[in-house]
Sequence to fold (88 residues):
Amino acid sequence: MRADLALQMLADMLWSGLLISAPLLAVTLGVGLLISVIQVVTQVQESSLSFIPKIIAAVIVLVVCGPWMLKRLLAFSTALIGNIPSYF
Fold:
């Protein structure tokens, strides 16, 4: 019974982590891919060129999705801490 509970808690933790990080990772991946394609087309091989747009995109995503990410993390943490008595 305890192993099932531990596996369920681990699955919930991994799923929450995936959902929370998905918007940031997806946008920075898309921006990085777009910048790479532009670099290939224009043959500008400046390695630092991709960092600034990625940082700007990450900040925008954090501003837009940050409250949702924090709410999701807070809900997970509250549920986890609130259920501590039922684990024993």
